Amino acid sequence: MTLARPLAALALSLSLLAAARPAAAQASLQCRTEPAVVVLGHPLHWTLTARDLAATLPSFTPAQFAPDWLLTDQQGASGSTDGHREQTATLTLYPLRSGRLSLPAVQAGGGRCPAQTLDVAAAANGEAPLQWRTRMTPARPYALQALRVELWAIGGGNLAWTTPQPRSAQAQIAPLADTVRTEVIDGVQQLVQVFAWRVLPLQAGEVAMDFGLLRAHAFGSLRVYAPPPLRFTARALPQWWPADGLIGAPQLQVLSAPAQLPLGDTTAWRLRLSAPGLDRAQVLRVANRWNAALPARFGPAGVQITRAQESSAEAGDTWDITLYLRPQNAGRLQAPALRLDYFDPRTELPATARWMPPLLTVIDARPLHLAIGLGGAAALLLLLFALRAVGCWACRSWRERRALQAVWQATDAAALKQAWLALPARRGLPRAATLAQWLSDAALPPPHPLHLLAERLQRHLYGLHAMPDFPALRRAIHAALAARRRRE
After folding, report:
1. Do 131-234 and 246-363 come out as alike in CATH topology?
2. Which candidate, 311, 267, 361, 58, places its Cα nearest to that of 174?
3. What distances in angstroms separate CA 173 from CA 136, 169, 180, 227, one per listed residue?
4. What is the pTM of this model?
5. How crowded is residue 354: how many other Cβ atoms within 10 Å of its Cβ?
6. Which residues contact residue 179 at a Cβ distance below 8 angstroms, ignoring those fewer than 6 apart?
7. CATH class entry, domain 131-234
8. For the chain, what are the domain ranges?
9. What is the pLDDT of residue 313?
10. Membrane-crossing residues (predicted)?
11. 246-363: CATH architecture
C-alpha cells in the first residue's frame, strides 16, 4: 500500500507528459486568402490563423503593403477550442495594380508563412477592364496659365464614384463639377465618368499631379483604384512680360455703376474682377492705376478691394473693386476706360480688355429745392386763404340760418321786419335800414314775390290794413327768403 501511491502518481505524470508532447508538436500558423480569384480594385481578405503558438500574431501597417496593396482594415480574435489556444487576424487588402503581386512572409513564434504570390486580374469574368485617360486644355500651358484637367474612368459600369482629391507640389488645384457622358473610345461608344479640376502651374518646368486613390461603390461594396499620375511641362513666359502681369483674359462684371448723382453725394462703382491666380497685389495695381487716371472733377474718394464670397473654380480667383466718387461740380462727367493688360497664351502676344464707365451726370438740386420750397409756401398760403374762405362761408351760413330762424319765430310785424333786415341783401353790403333799401340792395326785379310781401308787411306795420292772418304772411316771407338763399 505504501509503494502503490507513489507509483500511481508517477504513472499519472508520465501520461500527462506524453499527452503534452503531441500538443506541442501540433502548434501551427496558416495563411489563406479569399476569394480565390483576385481582381483589381476588389477586396481581398487575408486570414492568419495561429494554433497553440506562444507568441501573438504580428500587427501590420499600410506601409508594409504599399505601393501594391492598400490595407483598409485588420481584425484580430483569440480564444480556446477543445483545449487548443487559437489566434486569428483578418486583413482587408485592395490590389492597386494588376499582374503578379506578393504578400509578405509572416513569422510568429515557431510558426511561419512564406511570402505568397497572387495573380491579380484586371477585371472580373465577363467585365471589361477599367481604363484611365487624362485630357488637358490647353495641351501646352504656360506657367501661371489656368488649364482644365480631366480624368476619365472608362468602363466603370454601375460604380458610384467618390470625387478624388489630387495633389501637386508644383500647381494649385481647384475642383470642377464631375460629369458623366458618352465618348467614343477606340471606335466604341462608352459611358465615361469624368472628374475635372482647374490647375494653375506655379512655375515653368515639369508638373506632377497625383490623383491619389479613387473609391467607388458597387451595390454597397467598396472598390479602390489607383489611376496613374499626370505629368506635363509648363512653358516659361516670355522674358519681356512682367512677373506680376495677368495671364489669360480676365473676366470683368459690373455690379453697380450709377449714371446719376446729386451734387454733394458720394457714389461708388463696383466691379468684380476674376482671373486664375489673381492676387490682391495685382488687383490693387489695376485699381490704383485707374483711380489715379480719373480727373480731379470726379472727386476720387478711395478704393476698396475685397475677395468675393462667390468665387468659383471656373472663374478663378475673384475680387470686388469698389471705387468711391464725390464730384464737387454739377455737369456730365466721362471717366477714362479701365484698361486690363494681359498676356494671351493663344496668340502669345499682349492683349488688352477695356471697360468704359457710363456717363456720370451730377445734378445740382439746389434750384429745384428752392422752387419746391417756394411752391410749398405758395400752396400753404393758398390753403390758409381757402381755410379762411371756408370759415367765413360757414360763419355767414350760420348767421343766415339764425336770421331765417328769427323770421320763422317772429311774433309780430316789427319783429318780422327786424329779422328780415338781419339777412344781408347781398354779400359785402352793410345792413339795410329799411325794407325798400334792402330790396334795392338785393337788385330784385319788380315781379319778384318779395316786393309784394314787403308791401303787405309795410301796410301791416303802419296799420293801413288789418292783417287777419299774420302767420300766413310770416310763412310766405320765410319761404321766399329761404328760396332766394338757396339760389345764391
Report:
1. yes
2. 311
3. 13, 10, 21, 17
4. 0.65
5. 10
6. 194, 196
7. mainly beta
8. 25-121, 131-234, 246-363, 386-487
9. 54
10. 368-395
11. Sandwich (2.60)
CA distances for 427 relative to 84, 478, 488, angstroms = 135, 19, 10
In residues, how long is the chain? 488
The CATH fold of domain 25-121: Immunoglobulin-like (2.60.40)
Look up cell 506655379; give the residue. Answer: 202
Nearest alpha-carbon partner for 328 in 356, 302, 362 = 362
Question: Closest Cα to residue 354, out of 376, 377, 336?
Answer: 336
What is the distance between the alpha carbons of residues 286 and 338, in angstroms, rounded to a whole number? 8
Q: Give the pLDDT confidence of 434-467 residue by residue, as tens digits.
A: 877 777 777 777 778 877 777 787 777 776 555 5
Burial class of residue 464, CB neighbours in 10 A (0-12, 13-18, 19+) = exposed
List residues bridging with 359 in a β-sheet: none
Please report the DSSP string for 69-128 in residue order.
EEEEEEEEEEEEETTEEEEEEEEEEEESSSEEEEE--EEETTEEE--EEEEEESS-TTSP
Rg (CA), the chain: 55
**Confidence at 4, pLDDT banded by 50, 70, 90:** very low
23, three cell numbers: 500538443
Average pLDDT estimate for 328-335: 85
